[in-house]
Design a protein that fits this description.
Elements lengths: L2 H7 L1 H10 L8 E4 H25 L4 H20 L3 H10 L2 E2 L5 E2 L2 H9 L2 H12 L4 H32 L1 E6 L6 E5 L1
Parallel strand pairs: 1-3, 2-5
Antiparallel strand pairs: 1-4, 4-5
Helix pairs in contact: 1-3, 3-4, 3-6, 3-7, 3-8, 4-8, 7-8
Length: 185
């Protein structure tokens, strides 16, 4: 199943979850973790492909572009998976709390915007700025963006497994807070 198809397939479940949660002022605003991961992964991968293609269009040889892109992906994977970030993330999701009364589900568009800022937007801007003077740097930065997309896909698969195991939807507090919640399906 494709990333976009999986994200689209969650629409009915999202509507059901949103309908279950009542809207109250001051209540926490939550985002659905797996659909958000799939959406941001799609955006990151498309932008990464566009970045490396632009570097080639600006005169970088295809082989060099591919090598620099792969280097960027490898650097990102080492940075993310070389430490204990994955373990800390797993611990955070294992301690999910029940969804509080009055919680609201943030729109997917707004959740995507929050997920894209600052990393995706920043890398995209840097990739574009580097095109004219250094297309090789653009290919490397596009690789970092592609690596972020790959990490997002891996995270979405992990979240999907946790949701199936728990028979629940996993939600995260919007705005970068560390709280994780789950709602029964």
């Amino acid at each position: 199943m494709g990333v976009a198809a999986a994200a689209a397939g969650d629409a009915a479940a999202a509507a059901a979850t949103a309908a279950e949660l009542t809207e109250r002022p001051g209540a926490p605003v939550l985002a659905e973790a797996r659909p958000q991961a799939l959406l941001i992964a799609t955006v990151r991968l498309v932008l990464a492909a566009a970045g490396v293609a632009a570097a080639v269009a600006f005169g970088l040889a295809r082989g060099s572009a591919a090598a620099l892109f792969a280097c960027g992906v490898a650097i990102l994977f080492l940075a993310v998976y070389g430490g204990d970030r994955r373990r800390r993330s797993a611990l955070r999701f294992e301690r999910a709390e029940p969804v509080p009364a009055g919680a609201r589900i943030e729109s997917r568009g707004r959740a995507l915007g929050r997920a894209a800022y600052p990393s995706t937007i920043g890398l995209t801007v840097l990739t574009a700025f580097a095109l004219w003077p250094q297309p090789g740097l653009s290919a490397l930065l596009a690789g970092l963006l592609g690596g972020l997309g790959g990490v997002s896909v891996a995270g979405a698969f992990r979240l999907g497994a946790w949701e199936r195991e728990r028979k629940a939807r996993i939600l995260i507090e919007a705005g970068g807070a560390e709280r994780v919640y789950e709602a029964p399906r």
